[in-house]
Amino acid sequence: MFEGLSDRLSGILSGLTRRGALTEADVTAALREVRRALLEADVALEVVRSFTEKVREQAVGAVVLKSVTPGQMVVKIVNDQLVAMLGGEAGIIDLNAPAPVGILMVGLQGSGKTTTTAKIARRLTQRDKRRVLLASLDTRRPAAMEQLAVLGKQVGVETLPIVAGQSAVQIARRAMEAARLGGFDVVMLDTAGRVTLDEALMQEAADVKAATNPHEVLLVADALTGQDAVNTARAFDGRLGVTGIVLTRMDGDARGGAALSMRAVTGKPIKLVGTGEKVDALEEFHPARVANRILGMGDIVSLVEKAAETIDQEQALRVAEKMRKGKFDLDDLSMQLAQMEKMGGIGGLMGMLPGMGQIKKQVEGANLDEKMFKRQRAIISSMTPEERRNPDLLKASRKKRVAKGAGVDVSEINKLLKMHRTMADMMKAMGSGKRGIGQALGSMFGLGGGGMGGLGKMMGGGMPEPTPEQIAALEKQFGGKLPPMPPNLGAPGQAPGLPGLGAPKLPGLPGLGGLPFGKKK
User: Could you tell me which residue ranges the SRP54-type proteins GTP-binding domain spans (predicted)?
Assistant: First the structure.
């Protein structure tokens, strides 16, 4: 979502970091471009004015202009102000209340409210181990109650039985009573929506709130609606007292202004964001991590968390041991491709790696086809277990059989086998500790032995230095101390990368040993 804004801000700020000294005029000119970039991203005018003024106050001070690295000081100030604009600390759903805790879901029709209700219920059930009851109060939209019941079955959460003819308030009271008698921890009340704001919608939601006294009132807003989402948030908050916001369709191609404006305009935290249609596509909103992504600094902590959710640790350890011994067969490759898909593909992975934002477009420009993951796995599935364990068995006749089974040309089989050999060599080198992730990525993008140093030169600057919290998260996840980082990791022209991350303790970053892609057809 923030790709356009990220490109603009990264370009503006990288221009400052390349200069040895800055004048007040340089900062003013850069802030003018920042202001224009934010307005083009559909950020509210009042928010843009406040943001640029706060940055200016700090950026034109003597401490910045006379510092050793003034450009990087300005980048830090912009980052800090972005974090403040987005809310500072991450907001979480508050369940600290006597059971059953009521959560009232409000929003306009079409914002994804019912689906989001089921996603949150799944999250509370699986992560927080709470017993949740779902109740649909939407008596107007056809099959709205049935939709929530179906979603409830998909996520393994109980739903309130449907009783025809009851009003929204009656259903809400029945849900709270059923939760008390049934020993539920949380009751999620999915209210009706309208295409536009109107008095009937607000009055019904207000009556339900008065009848149930919910602990949380979550507004579900569609991030694709831009400034209309901000106006919707103002209206609901003024009438109902919203306690948090859930932004949906954050995986879309909107300019991102709604997300940046929502917290600053309403003062209410963005607690969760929807990142897809699937029931597990829901993430916490961390202002610092989002700011890092916008400025192209990556998001190592989210990458580690996503890896922890998607990677089978026992399987990863087995692969690590095989890597150490220099073994990497086609079953291992298939597993790596599957994990890569779960983590969002090469695009999603690169968006979280520090310093990779500015070469992401170059990789996209190479016309890489991420659907190749599925085709490659289909090819591997068409092989016998012996062929997967020993690819050397695949001679001409066997290749024809596999190609026919997978519905591809024999040339695709040859590409897969060539990629496997490359990855096997890479894994062997990484397993022996001779190459880290920097060198692996350098090879992936044709940068030779320079690794991330080559990437740094290509970007005209350095890799941002990981924070102590990011390093601690990595060490906690992978069970050991990381090798010491070299000095001046963030200095321009000095980007040696993240050494050692390609060692056997990190088999769960799949696909980094080679390019498991093909050209788009």
Answer: 269-282
